[in-house]
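Notes to self, O-antigen/teichoic acid export membrane protein:
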Amino acid sequence: MTELRDKTVRALKWSYLGFFVNLVFTPLSTALLSRLLTPGEFGVVAIASVLATFGAVVTELGVANALVQRRDLTPEHIRAAFTSSLVLGVVLTAVMWWAAPLVGNYTGNPDVVPVFRGFAATYVVASLALVSTSLLRRELRFKPLMAAEVGGYVIGHGVLGIGAAYLGFGAMSLVISAGASWAIQLAVSYAYVRHPFALTFRLAPYRDLYSFGVRASVLRLLEFFSGNMAVFVIARVFDAAALGLYRRAFDVAGMPVMRLSGGLLRVLVPSFSALQDQPGRLRRAYGSSLLALSSVLFTFSAGLFVCAPEIVRVLLGERFLAAVPIVQAFALYVPFPILANVAAIVAEATAKLDIKIALQVAQMLFLAAAFWVVTRLGLGVVAFAWVLVAGAVLNSLAYVGVAARILPGSGRESLRAYGLGLTAGLGVGAVLFAVVAGLRAAGTGVFVLFGLELVVGGLLVALVVFLGPDTELRRYALRVWQPAAARLAAWRAQGHT
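result:
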């Protein structure tokens, strides 16, 4: 178990590093792209990329999760996973290419067609990378995974995507960046895991993978439709510019935190899977993970809500000002699906996917009914965001019950984690609001104010981490800080001699 803990800590370290690198580059690329592309072009990309993601989910057919979760994995399983993902990638590319005009008719926007086809063309590259990235996750080798993701983001999205937008490629520039990002991830991950590019058509390994993978795919499809239902409705009811505002607001509010939490959750899947036969240890790991994430997520949420006007002005520009209330809604949304995912990973690691499927169906029904009401009342896109907030809160509470059912006694730990997180968020929000309100009243320039918000917010987050509950995140932060503090003290001492 010591070896597993050490691997998990190293994986968390690389996840944190990847997050902070992305935290530097994401605002820069967001600010540049928002000044090179219009809200309407972002709306075209939103509907095309969401539908393309649907194909990617089908292409995977759950084999990625099966490769991570399965106890005994043979070379034949790996070949079966590669065959499945490649064949489905080719088939789905052809199907989505043919279906692109239907999407254009649904949205009433012919500009969607070439962009949708461009995203569909990335399926094959993504399918080639699936096995190697899944094997790295299984082995908790997150250093190459983070190198692949960061390299793909910086080169694919940063250099090629922004360069294409500057050259006038419009919405297609994001297709170019997505394709380049997948190609870089494939090259880096395969350099570390050289599994054979070999096909197999024996039925036995497919049965082993799909016994778990098919249910995982059904679950991912349900999650896809729940998470993107608002996009489908907005694309039908409103114009591309309104959809562009909605998606950019979600990206600004959720992307940094989602990247951090996504990295952490990828670490937790193999770690929790390794403890699936040890409920006591799994319960402790679940409680510690939930507590660490809750304290950080609600703190970020409060900061995003208070600073939304400056975030939109600096990162998106004046033509996206209508996105401010949407950003504030999504700021409150972000913590809940991520915290629910911690409990969902417990269900996945113990192969209890039926519970997850039932909850996803319930969430879909709630969202469908709520969006119908919003549409009938003629409300704007801000209302769609608040519906997602309500759905996320209810789903998160339901998953507290799921964790308590799988791990008896964890319900109290879950409520404690949520309570401490909410308390930290409210405290940080109150302090930050008092500081920011005074600076706004004093007429501080937007860029100066944004910089001060980053500094004050960063200090408050650090206080929450260092002074908060004892979790793996706090222990890791202390291990990093103590040598740095010692070197700083030595440097200051030398300066006085």
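- Residues 37-237 form one domain.
- Residues 277 and 350 are 8 Å apart (CA to CA).
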